[in-house]
Each structure stands twice: as C-alpha cells, then as structure tokens.
Amino acid sequence: MKKILNYTAYSFALLLGLSACEVNRLPETAISDDTFWRSESDLKQAANYLYTWMPGFNTDDNWSDDAIGLSSNGISDGSRLAPSTDGSYNTPYQLIRAANNIIEKAPRATSAPVAVIDRYIAEARFFRAFGYFSLVQRYGSVPLILKTLTDDSPELTAAAAPREQIVEQMYQDLDFAASKLPTPTQLGNADYGRISNTAALAFKARVALFEGTRAKFHNSGDPVKHLTAAVNAAKAVIDSKQHDLFGNYFNLFQYEGEGRQNRENIMVRQYGVSITDRVSTHAYYRGSMENGNTNPTKALSDSYVMSDGLPITKSPLYKTPTATIEIFANRDARMIATFMKRGDAQMTTKPIFDVANLSFNKTGYMFRKFANVDDWNTQASRIDRPVLRYAEVLLTYAEARFELDNAISDADLDLTLNRLRARAGVAKLTNAFVTTNGLTMREEIRRERRVELAQEGFRYWDLIRWKTAEVELPKPILGIYFFKSEFPPATVNLTPDNFILVQAANFRKFDPAKDYLWPLPINEISLNPSLKQNPGW
C-alpha cells in the first residue's frame, strides 16, 4: 500500500530562521529551538520540512521548443529583463538554510543512534545539493553558504563562489547521502517517499551529466571529470538492482504507477492516497493541459520515430497523414501516451477527445500524460509528480558514456536505451543501424531523451547544456497540420504548407552572449555589492 510522507508545518524557530529575540516572543506552548533536537522523532520531523521543496507540476517546457502556452514568455522570446526579485533565486536559499540548520543541530539528538543522526543529516545534505543545483543551472556562480547565518555573518556580503567549487560541494553532499541513506528496499512501505541512497546517486548522475556536457560544449571546465562521475553514479544505480522500468508507459503517470510496486520511480513528490487522505492536490490536467497553458509542438511531435526505429523523414512506414489520427500510425508508443488522439478519454463533459480546441490548445495538439477523467471531475488530482525516474538514469548513462568516449557499445545501448525502446515498441538502436541509415548516434541518444522525458521539464535545460539553445529556440513554433474537415472554423495563422503557425521566428530570440545564464535579481546585488551581475545583463 502506498504510504504518504507527511509534510509537517512548523511554528518553531529552527526552520523559519528566526533570530534569538524573535524566539523569545514565541508563545509558551510553541516548540523552541532549545527544547527541540532531542530524539529521532525530532530529527524526522525536521527533515520532513525539507520535502515541502520537492518540485511540483509546472509549465517549464514552455521555455523550450517542445511546448508553448497561451501566450509567449520572456525566456523563449528573449524579452525578459533582470528582475528586482526572483523566487528561483531566493527559494533555493530557503531550502539550503533549512538543510544547513539540520546539518548543524542534528548531532544534539544524543538519545538517537549515530546511524540515525547520520541518516537525517544525509537527507539534509541531499536537499542542500538539490537547492544548489537549481541555482547553478540558472545563475552559474552564486554564494556558497554552508552554515546558518546571523545578521552580522560575513557570508552575507561574500562574493559568488566559483562554479566548480559549488559543484564539488554538491558531489560531496551526495556522496555522503549515498553512503548513509537506506536503500529503497530498506525504506519499504513504511518510509516510501523518503530519499534513498539510489536517489542520491541518481541525482548525482543528473548533476554530473549537466556539468560534463556543459563543460564539453561550452568549452569551460573539465568534461572528463564530470562525465566520468555521471557514468559511475548512473552505473551504481543500475548495479544496485533496486530499480526497474514500469511495464506501461502511460500508466507510469497514472495512479497505477504509484507506490513501492513501481520500481521505476526513484523520487516523487507525493500528493496523497485519497481526497480525504492527502498532502495536497494539483490541477495540472485541467489548468495546464486542457486550458492550454502548455501545448505540445510540431517539433516535439516530429521527434517520435516510427516503429522501425527510423525518423519520419527516413522511414518507409511513414505516410503523409490525411487525418489527425493518422499522425500516430506506426509511431513510437510513447507518442500516444504523451499526446491526446481521437478516441482518448478526456473529460466528463466531452468524454472522448476529438480535436483540440484551438482557442486554448493553440498548436492543435494536447498533452495526455497525467490526464485522468476522475481528476477532471474533482479538479483535485493526487497523481504523484515523478522527480527522478530510472529511465532518466539509463538515459544519463548512455549519454555520458557516449560523450566521454565519443562512442557507445551495442552492449551499453542494450543496457540502457534499447530497454526504453522495447517498452515503446520501437526497433533496437545499434551502431550498425545508425551507420546503415545515415543517422548520428549523438542525435539518436538525444532524441531518445527528448521523447522519453517529454513534458517533464528537461528540454530547456538540455538545450542549455548542449549549447544548442541559440539554434533551436529562435525557430518558429508550429502546430499540427490544419485539417479543415476536422477542425471547427477558427482564425489561425498557417504556414504555406498548411501547418498552424503559433509564433513566428521573429518573435523568438536567444542571445548566446547572455541567455545561457539567467540574470541575478537586482535587489540581491544591491544588498551584496560583492555579487556581480551575469554577463550581458
């Protein structure tokens, strides 16, 4: 049975970051910092707070070429300015402070065994690394804070630490976490949802792949070091035998894919078991997919290969569609799990999907992952949000192995990508297949990542680390072929070859001189003169 990890809200000073004088003003019935940190229960309760920073459902794919919302956004159209404040900067530091607080104070719980203390310090160090990765992805070099601060701490006005130093600290934190945390098997049903040692390794693999490929393609840093770390961490997860792929790709993102019985999920944000037994709910299906806040693009659609493993530009199986349903014929099965097609269950008021409402789904496509009719009725979905999946680990190993050696063996392809392709009903990828069909292995590895992780928030960051954002993001956003006999009358812009034109290329800009890093918030620079703005901002 699935067990909910309860996220406890705190009224005591330890995680709110209150000063001593503020602590003195707490009601007598409140928990004080001095009376806390005594037992294993206290440590667990404190660590629970860190899980509230688990990422929820979002529309981050709209920053990329995989999706677009009801209107353009400043990231993909190049119009943003340096903000005064930015939650993407401040929120990770709140998490880091909470983690630092636990790391410092957990040893006070002298009634708990050392192994227990280490376990919760390990959870805190995992989340500290999680917070810093979010910052480094966006801003590059940022201040490295490894302790709780007071009003007069010199770190408040310290310069940003070198990127490499921050990444090395993340590695140290994740290595410690991997050595001290229980395995998923040891966590069992009782502690399902807590961070495991394989989660620490899988996240280290993600960090290292990002840094290794970024170093390689941006000509900055040590790609061999990071790619080697990515290979080793991913392989450790594979060799642990703690995880495996879930049998059905669509059900992986439904209630059928929840709980310990799904060994593919390594780390999830939990929402609950039922309406009455829940942590929280989300309206991702209704609010983001049905209402058009995130719509898949033609570019994403075209990236799904045919069942023979060849792209639509090369496969003899591909026939020019004469109706929307024919777009899905003989395609990678992940496409019909990710895109709505005619005949899919949609919602109570319109039980069967016909075609997208172009007033909302401006590309003429609609996402299907996480779509659930019962959730549409209640407007309160409890489907968990996968944060780390075993499929990502397999993709990471394959890509890091290839980028490290500029080659990958068929054995490693069978260990990784071909397992994903088998689940999707797609022919195997081999070196001979690539050569015979005039493909390139790097592009096929990247294609596999794109379709496997579609709608999960990876694409923008992949373009950033590969240094291809300057090529892909300025392209026009196109939608489905406009079949006049299927779509109701609508005012849409069309290309000369009759595809829906959602956003023309002249409205999409990416400046490689500055856009590979995000601008630091202006208020942070004002508060800390040692903090320098990123180039070009």
TrEMBL record:
Coarse class of the protein's main subcellular location: membrane
Domain SusD-like N-terminal: from-to ranges: 87-209
Subcellular localization(s) per the UniProt record: Cell outer membrane
Domain RagB/SusD: 287-537
UniProt keywords, alphabetically: Cell outer membrane, Membrane, Signal
GO cellular component assignments: cell outer membrane
Keyword Repressor among UniProt keywords: no
Similarity annotation: Belongs to the SusD family.
Protein name stated in the entry: RagB/SusD family nutrient uptake outer membrane protein
Species whose genome carries this gene: Runella aurantiaca
